[in-house]
Structures are given as C-alpha cells and as structure tokens.
C-alpha cells in the first residue's frame, strides 16, 4: 500500500492522472470507476487532460436501487456529468438500479465484470470503511450483491438529496472480491470524517468489520489523502 499525502483534491487528481496514463500506456482496456465526492478532483484532471478513452470500457462500482438513469442523484447521471460526456468510452457499464428482477441484474453485472477484468479501479471510502457499497460485515469473498445501506451511510449520503427520506435504502454493488481482482487500485480520501476509516484501512487489523482493511492484502494500492484524512495514522 502506498499512502501519498496531498494538499487537496487538485493535487490528488493530478497524481492519480499520472498513474492512469501509465496504466493506459501499458495497454489497459478496462477502468473501474467510482462516484461520490472523493474522485471529483480526479475526474476534473482527466477531463482537462488529453487522454482518450474511445477504445476503453468502464465498469462502475455501484448504483442505487430504484433511481432512474436520468435522476440527478443516480450514479449513472453522476458519471455522465463528471466524465462520460466529456470523455466518451467504447462502453460504460453500471448496475441498472431500475432492474425489476434484481437477481437477474446481479448475474448480468457479474458476467460483465468477468468479461472485462479491471486494470485500474478507482475508489472512495465510506466513513465506516465501506468500499463500493460493501458495508461492515460483508464477506471478503462477496461478489456483486444487493446491499441494505446502513443508517450511517444513508445519513452520510443525504447531503446529495433534498431530504433524507429520498435516499434509497438499497444499492447494487460490486463485491469486495471484484474490487480485489483489479490489477491496481487508487483510493481517494479527503477530510477528517475519513480519518478513522483510513487509519483502520492502512494500519488496523484486516477485518470484515472495516471492509477497506482488505486492501492491505492487495499488491498495488495507492491511497491519495489529505492531512485531515491521515490525521489518525500512527507515524
Ligand atoms: C458512497 C459510495 C462509495 C463512496 C462513499 C464515500 O457510499 N457508494 O463508493 O466511496 O460514498 O463518498 P464520498 O467520497 O462522497 O465521501
């Protein structure tokens, strides 16, 4: 695990862009993408860059159950706004939050992930250490699943909605096993409310109580974080 201290999202975004460029130069075909506020600086850097994704495929970590693609709070909408409209890909895959048959949707998405092995996975981290929407207690062997969101996650994500009742209570998420299958991983964490999760992920015991702690076992992880997010790490 490499922990890289950055001043802000702009610096984290630029440094991660350099890793992305190396990955693309090495022939990467599929990127794993994430939503939330943490990767926003990275997408800004990518949009302003000359990278070309027209031969690439993307797969996203997760999507809320029950939100249509044109709902501004859906992760599909987020990706269109922050990346896909500016940088067209050959194909963009996200779980379909409107699927009527969720079991069939899980199988469909799992097949997509198997057909498109991820070379570089982008991640944020939840305050409770979740990655994707894999909440504490999720098995490290978990593949794509429907998740009941924890009250703390619903509360944390309520800032993007008009009122907390509008936050979906379920999501479809890649599993922890899918995330660990990526060849390399970049995780962004900014702000003091991520400090405990980062300390646990980097220095804590590897435990399903803090999903991101499994990243200690991955051979190539870059964590870009600011002083506040690193404030609980022991030097
Ligand atoms: C959500 C997403 C995660 C994201 C996390 C943190 O729960 N499913 O993928 O990492 O929130 O979000 P933020 O970066 O906005 O703090």
Automatic annotation (TrEMBL):
Residues 17-219 form the Glucosamine/galactosamine-6-phosphate isomerase domain. It catalyses: alpha-D-glucosamine 6-phosphate + H2O = beta-D-fructose 6-phosphate + NH4(+). It comes from the Bacteria. GO terms for biological process: carbohydrate metabolic process; glucosamine catabolic process; N-acetylglucosamine catabolic process; N-acetylneuraminate catabolic process. GO terms for molecular function: glucosamine-6-phosphate deaminase activity; identical protein binding. The active site is at 62 (proton acceptor), 128 (for ring-opening step), 130 (proton acceptor), 135 (for ring-opening step). CDD domains: GlcN6P_deaminase (cd01399). It is an enzyme of class 3 (hydrolase). Keywords: Carbohydrate metabolism, Hydrolase. GO terms for cellular component: cytoplasm. The keyword 4Fe-4S does not apply. Pathway: Amino-sugar metabolism; N-acetylneuraminate degradation; D-fructose 6-phosphate from N-acetylneuraminate: step 5/5. Its EC number is 3.5.99.6. Gene3D superfamilies: 3.40.50.1360. PANTHER family: GLUCOSAMINE-6-PHOSPHATE ISOMERASE. Catalyzes the reversible isomerization-deamination of glucosamine 6-phosphate (GlcN6P) to form fructose 6-phosphate (Fru6P) and ammonium ion. Belongs to the glucosamine/galactosamine-6-phosphate isomerase family. NagB subfamily. This is Glucosamine-6-phosphate deaminase. The lineage of its organism: Bacteria, Bacillati, Bacillota, Bacilli, Lactobacillales.
């Amino acid at each position: 695990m490499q922990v890289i201290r950055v001043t802000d999202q702009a610096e984290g975004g630029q440094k991660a862009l350099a890793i992305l460029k190396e990955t693309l130069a090495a022939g990467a075909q599929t990127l794993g993408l994430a939503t939330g506020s943490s990767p926003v600086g990275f997408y800004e850097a990518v949009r302003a860059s000359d990278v070309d994704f027209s031969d690439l495929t993307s797969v996203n970590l997760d999507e809320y159950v029950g939100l249509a693609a044109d709902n501004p709070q859906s992760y599909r909408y987020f990706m269109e706004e922050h990346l896909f409209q500016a940088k067209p890909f050959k194909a963009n895959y996200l779980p379909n939050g409107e699927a009527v048959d969720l079991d069939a949707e899980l199988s469909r998405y799992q097949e997509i992930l198997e057909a498109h092995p991820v070379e570089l996975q982008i991640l944020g981290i939840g305050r409770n250490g979740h990655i994707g929407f894999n909440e504490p207690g999720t098995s490290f062997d978990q593949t794509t699943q429907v998740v009941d969101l924890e009250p703390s996650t619903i509360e944390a994500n309520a800032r993007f909605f008009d009122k907390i009742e509008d936050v979906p209570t379920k999501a479809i998420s890649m599993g922890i096993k899918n995330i660990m299958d990526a060849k390399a991983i970049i995780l962004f964490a900014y702000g003091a409310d991520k400090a405990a999760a980062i300390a646990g992920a980097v220095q804590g015991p590897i435990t399903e109580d803090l999903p991101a702690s499994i990243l200690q076992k991955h051979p190539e992880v870059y964590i870009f974080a600011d002083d506040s997010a690193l404030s609980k790490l022991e030097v």
